[in-house]
Amino acid sequence: MATNNRNVTLTGLARRFVDDGLLDEETAKDAFLQASQNRIPLITYLTQNHLADSSKLAFSAAMEFGVSVMDLDAFLPEMMPEKVVDEKLLRKHNALPLYKRGNRLFIAVSDPTNIQALDEIKFNTGLSTDAILVDDAKLRAAIDRYLE
Asked: Which segments does the entry list as coiled coil (predicted)?
């Protein structure tokens, strides 16, 4: 990838991934630029291109944002609420409704910085949303199974 990385200053998750030893500086800068150009989350770009282990990325992101990581394997698909969120929104935001409690919908996401996903789902469902951080690779597979 022939991108000029000299002017890129790593912050946030990209910096955290370098500090945690998951990526070297140049790979992180290039991935950051490519993810931005492709308009996809950095975590998704890294896992789709096999640049870092998705479970390690999830734990690193959890440490950065002070949140917990849930294992999607612990959730039974038949317990997940059906037809609560439009398929297009789920695919667009790489999100999955895990459970509903009262007027709150708990959403699995792999990118803790994607506040737009929660806001859009909240607007479309009329439910308050809470994010639950999960492994990106497992999330994409779970979304495919959920929408079958």
From this structure: none
Q: How many residues does the chain have?
A: 148
- Please check whether residue 136 is in contact with residue 94, taking contact to mean a CB–CB distance below 8 angstroms: yes
- Give the DSSP H/E element, type plus range, for residue 75: none
**Domain-wise residue ranges, the chain:** 13-65, 72-147
Per-residue pLDDT of the chain (148 residues; tens, 9 = 90+): 445 666 778 888 999 999 999 999 999 999 999 999 999 899 999 999 999 999 999 999 999 988 889 999 888 888 899 889 999 999 999 999 999 999 999 999 999 888 899 999 999 999 999 999 999 999 999 999 898 8
Options 3.90.650.10, 3.40.190.10, 3.30.300.160, 3.40.630.30; CATH of 72-147: 3.30.300.160
pTM score over 0.85 = no
Place of tokens 């495919």: 144
